[in-house]
């Protein structure tokens, strides 16, 4: 391989393909809570792997590591928190998802 060639990463799966059940569940909860724009964009967002901040972290990354800002939304069903999503600094894109029974 010459110095001019670049190694490229294969395309990342969308959340709808990588985690269809989790994505559908989060979309439904976001819509119910009034976050239609975030719900609409989530299925097409890419899966960037699992968070590696500590052993056992269950967050699914929907943006490159380090993309989250300080904004987050507790996902609630019937007044009970079932998970959370972290957002980018402007609050327009989900960067991480954690939901109680999401796959590891």
Low-pLDDT runs of 5+ residues are none
Number of domains: 1
- Class per helix and strand makeup: alpha+beta
Mean pLDDT: 89
Please, what is the oligomeric state? single chain
| Radius of gyration, CA atoms, in whole angstroms | 15 Å
Instruction: Kindly state the percentage of residues in helix.
Output: 10-25%
Write down the secondary-structure element order: HHHEEEE
The rounded distance between the terminal residues' Cα atoms is 36 Å
Strand content: 15-25%
Number of β-strand runs: 4
The biggest sheet, with number of strands, parallel, antiparallel or mixed sense and barrel status, is:
4 strands, antiparallel
Q: Strand order, main sheet: write it out.
A: 1-4-3-2
The shape is globular
Total DSSP helices = 3
